[in-house]
Amino acid sequence: MEHDGYDAYMIIRYALINKLTCKPGWEWSKHYLNSDKTLTKMVYAYKASRFLRNIKFGVEVPQSTRHALQIDKEDGKGLWKKAMQTEIDQLMAYNTFRVLKDDEPLPDGCKLIPYHCIYDVKFDGRRKCRLVAGGHMTDPTSEEVYSGVVSMETVTCFVVAELNDLTVCAGDVGNAFLNSRTKENVYFIAGKEFGPELEGKRLVAYKAIYGLKSSSARFHEHFSVSLHKLGFRPSRADPDLWIKTVNDRYEYIARYVDYVKIFFKDPRAVVIELKKTCWQTTRISWWDR
User: Fold this and answer.
1) Helix ranges (DSSP H) in the chain
2) Residue 251 belongs to some domain of the structure
3) Spatial distance between the Cα atoms of 8 and 259, rounded to a whole number of angstroms
4) Are residues 83 and 197 both part of a single domain?
């Protein structure tokens, strides 16, 4: 059995910790353990890989907030700091957290969990920061945590749209999960991303933050309630294909978590209504048949 240096080291380390080297199927690991030279090379490869630069579109992508601030310090542009500020401003605009006063007690049962920021570079050079909650640290929930998605068979709606002279558009809901409330009782300690005014403050989660176990399901519920209010109903064939009777025809919305396809005579009108009742922001692409 062959392994590259990085993977073999991690697997051998797992085998050592769990005392698996003598178990059936793990015999290959003895070859590495009996060769000090081979294992030493793998250790060096593993350690070096942790510091490899991640380059995307010619830009170094930071692996942590500290790394991002270090890059800003070196190049003097402050682009990653600006990306952090944009993300935090959006979170605060959605009332994602409730900031506790220093002497204010925590809500009963509220659990401290970590968060981290993921950094990326868009194709046009824009820096992107996304705050993600440490949902792996939350307690298991008895409620549904997944979001339903429209099935592939629903592409037949394109045929229906052609036959009924409907316009088709696709929408990507910006910051989708933040449109819905969370039922998870958790809080964070604000880090450097939040700036000096909020750093060190306790932030109780109010909205369905990315990374929490139930956020996808909470947005699914929120979207369903909004569609019902607008007169839509789920089809019997697919609960994520929503139908509305308009005059002498049916019009449709198909959803895939935070992406939607709208089959309407006037899709712009329904998008405006959805923004009023469901979404704060959305990005829409239009296609002419």
Assistant:
1) 5-17, 29-33, 36-49, 65-75, 79-93, 156-163, 195-198, 215-229, 267-277
2) yes
3) 39
4) yes
Cα gap 49→236, rounded to integer Å: 51
CA distance 67 to 138: 27
Domain-embedded: residue 193? yes
Is 288 a residue whose pLDDT tops 60?
A: no
Q: Stretch 173-193: mean pLDDT, rounded?
A: 90
DSSP string, 114-145: -EEEEEEE-TTS-EEEEEEE-GGGSPP-SS--
Q: What's the token pair of residue 182?
A: 């969370």
Torsional sign, CA 32, 34, 37, 43: positive
Residue 157 has pLDDT above 50, yes or no: yes
**pLDDT of res. 12:** 74
Q: For residue 165, what are the domain limits?
A: 152-179+214-287
Q: Which of 121, 135, 228, 227 is nearest to 182 (CA)?
A: 135
Tokens standing for residue 233:
């109903």
Residue 147 in domain: no
Q: How many domains does the chain have?
A: 3
Cβ proximity of 40 and 4 under 8 Å: no
In this structure, the answer to whether residues 44 and 92 fall within a common structural domain is no
Terminal C-alpha separation, the chain: 53
Question: What does the DSSP assignment read for 60-85?
Answer: EPPSSHHHHHHHHHHHS--HHHHHHH
CB 189 within 8 Å of CB 201: yes
C-alpha 54/C-alpha 50 separation (Å) is 10
Are 234 and 135 found together in one domain? no
Q: Which of 24, 29, 25 is nearest to 8 (CA)?
A: 29
